[in-house]
Structure formats: C-alpha cells, structure tokens
Amino acid sequence: MSNDQAPLLQSALALRRPLWLGEIALYENHVSISGWRWSGSVWHPLPFQNIRRVEKWPATHRGTNLVIRPAGARDYYCRVEEGVFFWVKEFRDDARTDLALQY
Prior knowledge:
- The chain is mostly beta strands.
- The protein has one domain: Pleckstrin-homology domain (PH domain)/Phosphotyrosine-binding domain (PTB) (PH-domain like).
- The protein contains 1 helix and 8 strands.
- The protein has one helix at 84-93, and strands at 9-15, 20-26, 30-37, 40-47, 51-56, 66-70, 76-80, 99-101.
- It has an 8-stranded mixed beta sheet, covered by helices on one side.
- A hairpin with a 2-residue loop joins strand 3 and strand 4.
- The longest helix is centred in the C-terminal third of the chain and has 10 residues, at 84-93.
C-alpha cells in the first residue's frame, strides 16, 4: 500500500499521543495517519477492510472529535483540525465503514 496517488481528502491532525505535523489523508482504499514523533517519522496506513468503526464525537476545545477503531489494533483518538464534517460525510457515504455519531 502506498501513497502514490493524490488523496481524496486530507486534514491537519492531532492525536492523544504527541504527533507533530500530523496529517490524516483519505485514499481510495485506505486512510493514512502520518507525522513525526521523538523516534522519527510515522506513517500508519489503515485499509478500509480493517476499520471496524469510526465515531464522530462532539468536539470540545482541542479535544478528540474523531475515533478510528481498526480491527486487531489500537484505536486512534484524533482531533481533525479542519473539516471534520467532510470526513463524516466520506465515512457515511462509504459502505465499507460503520459510522457512529455521538452528540
């Protein structure tokens, strides 16, 4: 799996754990989370077939607003910095993902 193609959607991202210059990007068959940690660059591809659930949480100031729950891996507690509702629309329209909205 590579990111040779242009993303369909991308946004700045913060995680609960430190991630500098974080970014979330949507591709045809996967979502990728990338950025930098003390140990160096990170890139986590999440194929759609491995994403068991996505949750949109009510946003508090600088808090988690999107949770990605992959099967067999740790959950990603994300703060999508811009356009979180574009992400909600993409996940809602994609039959491969289960989207839950929390108010």
